[in-house]
Design goal:
heterodimer, A: alpha+beta, Alpha-Beta Plaits, 2 domains, 5 helices, 4 strands, 15% strand, B: 417 residues, mainly alpha
Chain lengths: 196, 417
């Protein structure tokens, strides 16, 4: 596995109100948050974690214009070069009639492309088992996984999480990914910001 | 917090400047264009131009300010909380409806009872009698129905909008609402909002654009026309709200409006630009595809045929570029919808674009190839813009900028997209 095996200190929180300051303090202390697993989307958490904005929408735009170009080039080739037909006396290059199909292909390309990209970014694929840090992350716990390096003193991290209000804390060893050049979540350095 | 907003001098200067320019343009038209000349058969082009321009501007701007009330009512019915922070701005814009309503009504009545057959062909009784299609539409297109229905429509817009505004203003006097009072007040709002929406659907989204604008091309009809007009005015209305919100924010007002609210306004501008294009294209494509002579006539008058380009070809496609391509490509990114400057530019562009859209709805059927896009046309537009600024400013200086006892205010303050 390309990602390799890493050690994580995992802390579980049962309240958003505790989680947000904890995320802030962990980042402030200079630890690297691998990820926070929540049972539902938490507004503003991505911002609190300092994750850079996703590029998924840029990818979506590129897929979309690929779809547009594919549809237009294919249809114009078929109807003007390969097999021109007289349909109701319309010109062979019948742009208005092609717009619905162009639109459909634009949507199709961007939808399928974005789903596949999303799976890739999240390391999801059929038959690939992902490590679960805590089964209750899909139910009622917010689970924060902190990545350790060789130099990290995990006892210290555990104590730190304890003081930050975590309910359960343990150390786990897990595969981090399955794909070459896997998606590394960058974490911006902590700085005080207004409004969060 | 409680101090009343005062209009800055520059705002007043612009307001009176625009109204002054508009009045000058109107006077110029009144003297030079001989507006009461006999409609005839195209010999008094200038007189036709005078009424066509007034019709285009009054109907467009009336529908735009009316869209602000529609926005309030729709968000009320949807129990949306995020709009509360700038709700008074849309209320202020909608308070111009009675002013523009009266002006529009006077213009429409002058056209109908001034027997302007050059604007509305169906006013010509002899022509109608010998015309199979127009004879069939006689029940709908006659001066009596036209004037009564227009009057009722404008009256109901004013009345229900007034009710919505006074409900909102009442909440300021009520003081803090507890759960039960708040619930009752919201319910009250919802009832009036739904009544407004029913009236809106039966007028703006169906009959009124048919009656006021589509009947210029009396033989032609398109069931999609009203939706297309509605989309045009709604997206302009959203742009107008965004413009006022940005202006007031720059003046240190609207303390709870953040980038998040701007983002959602930008989304409305983006989404309804696409919606407008969808309807524009659906109307165009179906007519192009089925190729019925009585339907294609509408587009041949505008863009012409493959052999001979029509007089409106440039405007027609320019319209598509600024109302579709520009909003689509520029407002697509999250960053641009959160950029105050860019949203301002786009809002102005969208309002101008839809004004042009209305221009090419009205002019081809009335002026044919004799249309002009000169200071007179822009001057009349200035008059209406000035009136909107005046009415909106008046409402904002008379009433508190924030409905501070609105039960959803907190939701608006912490709004996060």
């Amino acid at each position: 596995m390309a990602g390799g095996i890493k050690k994580f200190v995992v802390g579980s929180f049962d309240d958003e109100k505790v989680l947000f300051p904890a995320v802030k303090n962990v980042r402030k202390a200079g630890y690297k948050i691998h990820d926070v697993y929540t049972p539902f989307p938490v507004h503003g958490l991505d911002h609190a974690m300092g994750i850079r904005e996703t590029s998924l929408h840029t990818a979506g735009f590129i897929y979309a214009i690929t779809g547009t170009t594919t549809a237009l080039t294919f249809m114009s080739w078929v109807f003007t070069k390969d097999w021109p037909l007289n349909i109701g006396g319309k010109p062979n290059f019948a742009l208005p009639a092609w717009i619905p199909i162009t639109f459909e292909l634009t949507v199709l390309f961007s939808a399928v492309g974005m789903v596949l990209t999303f799976c890739y970014l999240c390391n999801l694929a059929p038959f690939v088992k992902k490590h679960h840090f805590h089964p209750r992350a899909t139910d009622d716990l917010f689970v924060m996984a902190i990545e350790c390096t060789d130099k990290t003193n995990d006892a210290e991290v555990q104590a730190f999480l304890q003081s930050a209000g975590a309910q359960e804390i343990n150390v786990q060893v897990a595969e981090t990914g399955w794909w070459i050049g896997r998606y590394h979540k960058e974490q911006k350095l902590y700085k005080e910001e207004k409004g969060y | 917090m409680d101090h009343q907003f005062q209009l800055p001098g520059s705002y007043k200067k612009w307001t009176y400047g625009l109204i002054g320019a508009g009045v000058l343009a109107l006077l110029y038209g009144f003297i030079m264009f001989n507006p009461f000349a006999h409609a005839g058969h195209g010999e008094n082009v200038n007189s036709t131009r005078f009424w066509a321009v007034l019709l285009q501007n009054s109907v467009f701007f009336l529908l735009v300010v009316n869209a602000a009330m529609f926005f309030i009512c729709v968000t009320t019915m949807a129990m949306a909380g995020w709009v509360v922070a700038f709700r008074r701005v849309s209320e202020a814009i909608s308070s111009v409806v009675p002013i523009l309503g009266v002006i529009t009504f006077v213009i429409l009545m002058s056209i109908v009872f001034g027997h302007r057959t050059d604007i509305y062909h169906w006013l010509d009784k002899e022509a109608v009698a010998g015309d199979h299609i127009l004879n069939g539409k006689k029940g709908f297109l006659n001066p009596m129905f036209y004037s009564i229905f227009s009057f009722l429509t404008i009256f109901l817009w004013w009345f229900l909008g007034k009710k919505m505004r006074s409900l909102s203003l009442e909440s300021d006097k009520k003081g803090h609402m507890d759960y039960e009072t708040g619930k009752k007040w919201i319910w009250n709002n919802t009832v009036w909002a739904s009544l407004y929406c029913v009236v809106f659907t039966l007028t703006v989204a169906s009959t009124i654009p048919w009656l006021w604008i589509m009947s210029i091309d009396a033989h032609w009809y398109s069931t999609m026309f009203s939706w297309y007009t509605f989309a045009s005015t709604f997206v302009s209305g959203m742009s107008l709200i965004a413009l006022f919100v940005i202006y007031l924010k720059n003046r240190g007002q609207l303390e709870y409006v953040t980038e998040e609210h701007l983002h959602d306004l930008g989304k409305f501008m983006f989404a309804f630009s696409v919606f407008w294009t969808y309807l524009w294209f659906s109307q165009y494509m179906l007519i192009w595809y089925s190729n019925q002579p009585e339907e294609t006539k509408y587009f041949i008058e505008r863009i012409g045929t493959a052999e001979k380009a029509g007089p409106y070809k440039g405007i027609f496609f320019f319209n598509l570029i600024i109302n579709f391509l520009a909003p689509l490509l520029i407002l697509m990114k999250k960053g641009s919808k959160r950029n105050w400057t860019l949203v301002t530019v786009m809002a102005v562009l969208i309002i101008f674009g839809h004004w042009i859209d209305f221009f090419q709805m009205v002019m081809p059927g009335t002026l044919h190839e004799h249309f002009e896009l000169m200071p007179f046309e822009f001057g009349v537009a200035c008059l209406f813009v000035g009136l909107i600024m005046w009415g909106t400013g008046r409402y904002l200086t008379k009433n508190p900028m924030l409905p501070k006892h609105h039960p959803f205010l907190k939701e608006s303050m912490i709004h996060h997209t």
